[in-house]
């Protein structure tokens, strides 16, 4: 009887404690929305895979935080900014979403972060490339995790210019992301004593790059930089090889996600160097996580998948540490705590929301170097975060 | 470098040749559409999906059954054509007497579904299909490097387009077809099985898209959205060429490729709109298209 009383008491204390904790969680639950490209060009890069990664983080965290359940909802942005911002608005107003993860196309992310900032909700940006979210469009509620255009340019362009490849020609995706990447890379080239001899702007989704390749050929450049992504990169590299460009000049893919690298003919892509925020086969830690991801997703993780997992984990830990899911308190904790897991190495989350961590300068393996179809990159060098990312702007210092 | 009136001639010739290559590709694609759209008056928005299906079938055949490129050139168009025959018989025929908008919506929905299934199964990043051994390498021309495979596309396209044109315009079979679409009742009365002719013609047109898909597989990323990117341009070409004119579609395809190539040289920003600009002008001046007959 005494025993039972004790148990009863313990139970009611526990119940009381958990309601007390839950009182700090608005609406009694933590809800994460995943906004990504579920069926378009970037679907393999951050689509259903980002949902899987974020669900994995929630499960690994234990499914509850501060006694409140964690829920994940997801939606397809169709790569359209207006669709993306409408979904985010609905999530905030009708569904009590606390943070939005995924976030691929920079155009969609730009629209979504505006809505999130107005509502003081957190943007967990995993795959967007633009550096605007921590510079000219910076916000106290933006967290940008995996990489950005500056890191790509510093990682890939700088070592090549320093190695004596001075003259550059760009084949650029003709929209915000491509222009940003070309601009940042041109700056790196000029600062290191190189020269940009020309650029061809190809519309997003171009299939035939042959005429752009001809322009590159007659430009007299040492390096042709592909400032595009996804299928555009695959198609432009195909044309470059077909028209003999790869024998005349170096080709640098500025943004090559692992699924796209897998789609390239290894005879053509082998030897090309690029910069990535993550590779699945770095060490036991990355392999362990990637193996679990592969079992659920059916393909190796792209950098944004691993980033989405890592930042969701960090977000949940911050809620626990802050004792609340209130955005300002959580952001403060996220920036105080050092991210440290299989993804984030030597990492800090700066006051501007930029997560600075080790990046990897990698080379695409030649056919004879590959064990199987998942064996794509070999690491040439590790780029310390402070060399990869630009310093924080004073106006974006959100302490 | 040779220049004339301040124009870099080598660069210009290069773009012209690339334009011709793209043009022969357009010709092949618009040919299939011209047959279906022009003769059968079916607006087949699934033509782009059929082209994608052709490229994917070539890739799947090589990957899983070991059918090489040359065999795929024969087998895949037949298989895709068969899909077309099934499509016409069981989906399009039941609504054949309705407004044209119905077949447009039906085929558009079908295209989205096929594309969605392939994205689901194989992802959006595309697959790589190597250029066949025999066609690797190229020829060094004074003004550019011409890859053998691109030269092959010109040859293949000219042969296929020529044969199709001859078959439809010059043979008895072609005459039946043209008459059958012009006046089906009369042809039925003469004992010609018009529905069968329509089904087979539809299958043939779709098979041509499949063939274009196989030809495209080695040079473009084999991805689910490869067809939807191209479809609108090809429709524009058929409209410019004139409804129902097989020769018009072929010549317009070649011509538009060259115009696009020239635009890429002189004013690259306009290269993806120039075809539509031409379409607007042609429709204003000659509503039936360049080679079409006024109704």
UniProtKB/TrEMBL annotation, chain A:
Top-level lineage group: Bacteria
First and last residue of the signal peptide: 1-23
UniProt domain Leucine-binding protein: residue ranges: 29-365
Keywords in alphabetical order: Signal
CDD domains the UniProt entry points to: PBP1_SBP-like (cd06327)
TM helices/strands, residue ranges: none
Stored InterPro entries: BCAA_transport, Leu-bd, Peripla_BP_I
Family per record: Belongs to the leucine-binding protein family.
Protein name per Swiss-Prot or TrEMBL: Branched-chain amino acid transport system substrate-binding protein
Organism: Marinobacterium sediminicola
Lineage: Bacteria, Pseudomonadati, Pseudomonadota, Gammaproteobacteria, Oceanospirillales
From TrEMBL, chain B:
Compartments reported by the entry: Cell inner membrane
Record keywords, A-Z: Amino-acid transport, Cell membrane, Membrane, Transmembrane, Transmembrane helix, Transport
Source species, domain of life: Bacteria
Record membrane topology: Multi-pass membrane protein
CDD domains xrefs: TM_PBP1_LivH_like
Principal subcellular localisation of the protein: membrane
Transmembrane segments: 12-37, 72-92, 104-123, 149-168, 189-220, 232-254, 266-285
Pfam families named among the record's database cross-references: BPD_transp_2
UniProt family annotation: Belongs to the binding-protein-dependent transport system permease family. LivHM subfamily.
Protein name as annotated: Amino acid/amide ABC transporter membrane protein 1, HAAT family
Organism listed in the record: Marinobacterium sediminicola
Species lineage: Bacteria, Pseudomonadati, Pseudomonadota, Gammaproteobacteria, Oceanospirillales
């Amino acid at each position: 009887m005494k025993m039972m009383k004790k148990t009863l008491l313990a139970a009611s204390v526990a119940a009381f404690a958990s309601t007390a904790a839950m009182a700090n969680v608005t609406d009694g639950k933590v809800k994460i929305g995943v906004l990504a490209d579920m069926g378009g060009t970037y679907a393999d890069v951050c689509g259903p895979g980002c949902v899987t990664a974020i669900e994995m983080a929630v499960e690994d965290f234990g499914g509850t935080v501060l006694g409140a359940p964690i829920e994940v909802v997801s939606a397809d942005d169709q790569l359209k900014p207006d669709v993306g911002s409408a979904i985010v608005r609905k999530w905030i107003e009708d569904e009590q979403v606390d943070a939005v993860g995924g976030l691929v196309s920079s155009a969609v992310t730009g629209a979504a972060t505006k809505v999130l900032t107005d509502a003081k909700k957190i943007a967990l940006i995993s795959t967007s490339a633009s550096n605007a979210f921590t510079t000219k469009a910076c916000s106290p509620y933006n967290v940008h995790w995996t990489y950005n255009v500056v890191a790509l340019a510093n990682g890939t362009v700088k070592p090549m210019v320093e190695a004596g490849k001075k003259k550059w020609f760009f084949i650029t995706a003709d929209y915000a992301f491509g222009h940003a990447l070309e601009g940042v890379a041109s700056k790196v080239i000029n600062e290191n004593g190189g020269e940009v001899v020309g650029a061809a702007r190809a519309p997003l989704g171009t299939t035939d790059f042959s005429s752009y390749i001809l322009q590159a050929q007659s430009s007299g450049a040492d390096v042709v930089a592909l400032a595009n992504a996804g299928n555009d990169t695959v198609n432009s590299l195909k044309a470059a090889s077909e028209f003999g460009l790869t024998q005349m000049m170096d080709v640098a893919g500025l943004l090559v996600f692992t699924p796209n690298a897998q789609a390239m003919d290894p005879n053509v892509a082998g030897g090309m160097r690029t910069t990535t925020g993550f590779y699945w086969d770095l060490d036991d830690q990355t392999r362990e996580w990637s193996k679990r991801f592969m079992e659920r997703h059916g393909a190796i993780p792209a950098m944004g998948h691993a980033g989405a997992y890592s930042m969701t984990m960090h977000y949940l830990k911050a809620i626990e540490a802050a004792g609340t899911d209130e955005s300002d308190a959580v952001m403060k904790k996220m920036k105080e705590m050092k991210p440290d897991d299989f993804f984030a190495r030597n990492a800090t989350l700066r006051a501007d929301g930029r997560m600075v961590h080790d990046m990897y300068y990698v080379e695409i393996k030649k056919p004879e170097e590959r064990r199987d179809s998942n064996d794509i990159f070999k690491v040439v060098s590790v780029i310390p975060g402070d060399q990869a990312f630009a310093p924080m702007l004073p106006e974006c210092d959100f302490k | 470098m040779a220049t004339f009136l301040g124009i870099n001639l080598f660069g210009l010739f290069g773009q012209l040749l690339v334009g011709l290559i793209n043009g022969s590709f357009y010709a092949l694609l618009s040919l299939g559409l011209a047959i279906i759209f022009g003769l059968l008056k079916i607006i087949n928005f699934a033509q782009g999906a059929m082209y994608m299906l052709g490229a994917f079938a070539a890739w799947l055949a090589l990957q899983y059954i070991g059918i090489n490129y040359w065999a795929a050139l024969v087998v895949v168009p037949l298989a895709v054509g068969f899909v077309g025959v099934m499509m016409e018989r069981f989906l399009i025929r039941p609504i054949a007497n309705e407004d044209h908008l119905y077949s447009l919506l039906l085929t558009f929905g079908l295209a989205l579904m096929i594309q969605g299934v392939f994205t689901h199964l194989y992802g959006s990043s595309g697959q790589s299909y190597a250029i066949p051994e025999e066609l690797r390498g190229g020829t060094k021309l004074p003004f550019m490097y011409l890859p053998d495979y691109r030269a092959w596309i010109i040859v293949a396209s000219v042969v296929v387009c020529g044969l199709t044109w001859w078959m439809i315009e010059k043979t008895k079979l072609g005459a039946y077809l043209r008459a059958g679409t012009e006046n089906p009742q009369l042809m039925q009365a003469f004992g010609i099985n018009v529905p069968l002719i329509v089904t087979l013609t539809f299958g043939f047109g779709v098979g041509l898209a499949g063939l274009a898909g196989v030809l495209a597989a080695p040079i473009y990323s084999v991805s689910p959205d490869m067809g939807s990117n191209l479809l609108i341009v090809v429709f524009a070409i058929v409209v410019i060429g004139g409804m129902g004119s097989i020769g018009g579609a072929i010549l317009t395809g070649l011509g538009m490729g060259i115009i696009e190539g020239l635009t890429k040289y002189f004013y690259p920003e306009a290269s993806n709109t120039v075809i539509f600009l031409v379409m607007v002008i042609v429709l204003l001046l000659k509503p039936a298209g360049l080679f079409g007959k006024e109704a």
